[in-house]
UniProtKB/TrEMBL annotation:
Domain named EAL: residues: 24-286
Protein name: GGDEF domain-containing protein
Residues of the full protein shown: 744 to 1039 of 1039
Amino acid sequence: EAKAAGKRQWSRYQPQLQAGLVERHELNESLDTAIAESAFALYYQPIVDLASGDLVAFEALVRWPHERRGMVLPEDFIALAEESGQIVPLGAWVLERAVTEATAWQKLSGDRRTAGGRLPLRVSVNVSARQFRDAGFVDTVRRVVESSGIRPGTLILELTESVLMRRDERVRTDMRTLRDLGVRIAIDDFGTGYSSLSYLREFPISVLKIDKSFIDGLGLSEQQYALVEGITRIADTLGVQVIAEGIENDAQRQLLAAMGCPLGQGYLFARPLTVEQAGALVQGDADLAGLQDGRP
Ligand code: C2E
Ligand code: MG
Ligand code: MG
Ligand code: MG
């Protein structure tokens, strides 16, 4: 079965791979230039409280505005940057930029939010496995946290299960150091990899992001619903906050809110926003419903 699947994949992807060699070289070179010139853009997707609709966080998502290719999405360059190691400087740029922006937003919204009794706005940053394994990663996080003055508890680092799967000592030590810094760690795309709820007690995890593929199936079968509800309950028992990813319709939002899933993100609420749109939302000059009309 696996062999057959492997063959099928091979014959499907081979032509692209070959055509991709020249392109890959070209892309690597222009990635180098883009990294040197910090020629990337960060978009920010709102994460909301499912019961109240309040904005609680933004996930930073990188894009690469390219003169010939237009706005290049992460799926077309992150894997490449991981293979070449370019993800290390790129990821450091993303972290620094997102934290700088978030610190400014927290100042803008600080008084208003405290008055309303809400927590300060959080920012969630994706970290690839290669980036996390880099010997300088923890120091980069420490430097960015210290120089920005961000409240560490408002910074979430999103790791995928591939990082935890190895269960090696370095990963544990680094995660403990990050926890001691006060930074929060999320498991991203939970359910797509070698999902194990035991990660939640083995590692200092604060947040679990349930992958869109589970949310897609929510209204479709009892089993899918029970699965998401079970994950949410167990996470809650362990003091881990759940974020549902890829909520696209109100039926999904209602089911999630009913089962007690606290947070979510998805096109239903907002697409990834430009920094200006995100800022307007924070300042109260725009609301989520209004932003949906003028989708970027
Ligand atoms: P992710 O971290 O799971 O991010 C969620 C992705 O789902 C984003 O795609 C977002 O635009 C998309 N999305 C959000 N809501 C919906 C929805 O309701 N429906 C659908 N169909 N999609 C939705 P994006 O921005 O293209 O990013 C793709 C992946 O690239 C991310 O998945 C993440 O793994 C990676 N990535 C993005 N930015 C960075 C970064 O700065 N560093 C690293 N290492 N990886 C990044
Ligand atoms: Mg993510
Ligand atoms: Mg995700
Ligand atoms: Mg994903």
